[in-house]
Amino acid sequence: MKEVAALPNVREDKRRLRRMLFAEGRISVRFRNANIAVFTAAFLLMALAMLTAFSSIVKQVSTDHAEHYAVSSANALSAHIVKEIGLVSTAAVSAAVTEWLADERDDDKKAQAYEIMAGIIGELYSNNLYIGIDKTLNQYSVDVNNTKEIQLAASLSEDNPDDGWYFRCIASDHAYALSIDMDHVLQRKRVWLDYKVVKNGIPIGVISTGLEFSHMAEELLSQCDSNTRGLVIDESGKIQMDSTLLEDDDFMHRDLESSIGGEFFDPTKYSYVAIAPVKHTNWSTVILYSPSSYAGISLFLPISAILLVLLIAFTVTTNAVSYRLIFKPLEQLIQSLNRVKNNQEEQIYGADRDDEFGNLSNTIQDLFTKVNHDALTGIFNRRYMESSLQRIMGFLSRSNGLLSALMIDVDYFKKYNDAYGHEQGDACLKAIARALAGSVARADDFVARFGGEEFVAVLPNTDKEGARSIAAKMLKNIRNLNIHHINNDAADYVTVSIGVSTGSIKYPEDGDNLVKSADKMLYKSKNSGRDRLSCQELSQSTSN
């Protein structure tokens, strides 16, 4: 009767919700005022922009053009390097690799190190790795295509200039070093990444890989045209890449010695320069730009360009304001409502806001709480249990997972009501509900009131022993309430009987069989004297 009496309040909440949805509030006022303010500002800017000289437009376009080239090239190079650093560092910090570098004669450790390095080689820009070991100064190469093992390639020597990469990296205070040099095995110039391997704070070796120089140069600088020159320089100003040499047949083998200066900043050739640092390196990209090609275009379409830019700015700004104030909160509210509907979470978005969305969210939250919770005990109700069980069945059936269900009944509760009255009976049910809910701790476990004096506990991914343990805990917690019950044939205080069923979920329909099995076990507990639990484990799905 209590649940039926609560229905008028639910209808009133729905009426309040409809009034909120169609009532004008602070968000609509702020949105209208923001539109007026943005339109006024756009109109003033349009009038001011029409008085701007053509030369200013050309200057801005040229500056942005050069900056865009510089930043996009730097970001592209940085992305390649960051990816390589991440992959090589995975090998450098792995226990298998460090253990082998510390004991390179151990074949088992060597095989384990190869597995680690072979796993990342396929994702590298190039398909090879070189390893130098500090203890023996042996240099190895990793071959995943032919021998599929780590091969001894050479010995490292400080007197050999070609081995300088190793000794510079070992002596460096940094974890890795970047350089451009020849791969004398493959006879190709490469961008080298040398990564130091450290064990217990002591360098024990270096892992090196090379990014294909010609591919990277073309990818980074091929966008440069006759009006643009692109360079990659190091911290000393030495040129590492040059867009004007992309067509040079000897580009792969050239050793560029020039430094920034001279013709590169000749104002008769290039009017603008932009420099952007390459993240995680000491390199920078330099774009030298001549805007002559834009001068003619800017003379024909200045007003059109101004109007277009202002229109886009106005549209984007208006959309951004409306999205931030209205559409984004509404989208988040709808998403949270779907998650609450599917029992994936309990809290609705916006409950902590102090505007219309906050009022709306709290009203909806109250509705969901009333729909999913038992009015008397405050725990979940049968509706929530059935919808949650359906969702859990679908999830567990994909992996043939375990599920345990507990059917719980208060022993001789009708006699308790007859002896102590319905008001005391309600208080007894509340105490029992709190004790049962407090017996489960995992986030996915829950207890619901099934009806009258019956309760259900749903325990996903719980085996028979785990379910038995929780059922025993429930029996103990109910006994510890020590609620006097003179008409209980099982004890002189309130007790419960529990039926436990555990099964492997193969089909979503298996949940019904599990609940029915738990109900049978409940009657077994009752017929065996009550104040006890009975368990059954279903050997396989019986939904067919």
Stretches with pLDDT under 50, minimum 5 residues: 1-8, 20-25, 256-263
Distance between the termini: 39 Å
Question: Sheet bearing the most strands, described?
Answer: 6 strands, antiparallel
**Alpha-beta classification:** alpha+beta
Number of domains: 3
Q: What does the radius of gyration come to?
A: 37 Å
Q: What's this, in brief?
A:
49% of the residues lie in helices and 20% in strands. It has 16 helices and 15 strands. It has helices spanning 2-5, 7-22, 26-49, 54-92, 95-102, 107-121, 164-171, 213-221, 292-300, 302-341, 356-372, 382-397, 413-420, 422-437, 464-481, 510-527; strands at 129-133, 138-143, 149-155, 176-183, 188-199, 202-212, 228-233, 239-242, 272-277, 284-289, 402-410, 446-451, 454-460, 496-504, 533-538.
List keywords for this structure.
single chain; about 550 residues; alpha+beta; Beta-Lactamase; Alpha-Beta Plaits; 6-stranded antiparallel β-sheet; 5-stranded mixed β-sheet; 15 strands; flat; disordered N terminus
Would you give an account of this structure?
With 544 residues, the protein is of the alpha+beta class. The chain folds into 3 domains: 2-47 and 309-368, no CATH class; 52-300, PAS domain (Beta-Lactamase), CATH 3.30.450.20; 373-538, Alpha-Beta Plaits, CATH 3.30.70.270. The chain is 49% helix and 20% strand. Strand 1 and strand 2 (138-143) form a beta hairpin. It is flat. Residues 1-8, 20-25 and 256-263 have low confidence and may be disordered.
